[in-house]
Amino acid sequence: MMGMKIGSSNDTEAVMAQYSSSSGLNTRIAFHETYSTNQYGYGSWILSNYEIPEGAKVLELGCGTARIWAGQEELIARCGLLMLTDLSEGMLSAARENIGERKNAAYALADIQDIPFADDSFDVVIANSMLYHVPDREKGIREVRRVLKNKGVFYCATYGEHNFTDVLAKWFGLSGESFQPNHNFTLQNGEQILKVAFANTEARFYEDSLRINNIDDLVAYLRSLVSLKAIIDLPSDRIHEILTRHSCEGAIELPKEYGLFICR
After folding, report:
1. Tens-of-pLDDT digits for all 264 residues of the chain?
2. Is 47 strand, coil or helix?
């Protein structure tokens, strides 16, 4: 399998294609909700870390479908403004469907590298699971600091460098050009990267793993990922053969390494 070229998750065009609509993202969210061993849920855990003062102006960059906010009436009501932004019209359309029209909610296209808001505009800025896709992360982080008030808080969730994708790559014999994991912004290097604009940064870790008892669901998940394209280009029977080889007592177990940075 050496020599198979992977669609890198560092490739801007590939990333835009992956996130042009909500279907692939919904597949990934549903997969993790079904097979994660920590039943609290990553989204619920992220929300539990938010400190949003009454009347705060909140900006989320790369909000995706905004599903994390769905049903969070008390938290949303606490916001003086909840500004949900994304690079994708498709994602914003899904976010509108999930959150609806509200007096204190707004939707806009926005790029973290050139945030279209004034200095010191927000009490809270959020950029979850997206900084590793940003071409100029330093500029993006400086832009976050620019629009954040002096006593504001920046939240950015990400993954670690010892995750299930690395295990899958090993199982399928991927390396070199056939597997180029996106480690641009991880739990291991994120604090150092954030220091370009934030002196006070805290990392919090979410304990979790995957236990998958339906290989077809895992294959569907893999098909939604740019970084594992070399796997999904294989014949389906070959994919099933390799995954089944690593099944134990009817289930495949994989590690997850997720967490959140809180910057002040």
Report:
1. 222 222 344 444 545 454 455 566 778 889 999 999 999 999 999 999 999 999 999 999 999 999 999 999 999 999 999 999 999 999 999 999 999 999 999 999 999 999 999 999 999 999 999 999 999 999 999 999 999 999 999 999 999 999 998 899 999 998 777 788 899 999 999 999 999 999 999 999 999 999 999 999 998 888 887 777 788 788 888 999 999 999 999 999 999 999 999 999
2. helix
The first and second tokens of residue 180, run together, are: 């180029």
Q: Which two tokens stand for residue 155?
A: 């939240």
According to CATH, the topology of domain 12-263 is Rossmann fold (3.40.50)
- In angstroms, the CA 104 to CA 46 distance is 21
User: Domain extents for the chain?
Assistant: 12-263
Compute the distance between CA of residue 154 and CA of residue 141 in angstroms, rounded to an integer.
Answer: 10
Yes or no: say if 165 and 132 are a contact pair by the CB < 8 Å rule.
Answer: no
Question: 81 with 58: CB under 8 angstroms?
Answer: yes
Q: Collapsing DSSP states into helix, strand and coil, what is residue 17?
A: helix
Q: What is the pTM of this model?
A: 0.86
Q: Is the dihedral of CA 245, 247, 248, 253 positive or negative?
A: positive
Q: What SS3 state is found at 241?
A: helix
CA dihedral 175, 179, 184, 185 (to 10 degrees): -100
For the four alpha carbons of 186, 191, 193 and 194, in that order, the dihedral sign comes to positive
| Burial (0-12, 13-18, 19+ Cβ within 10 Å), 110 | buried
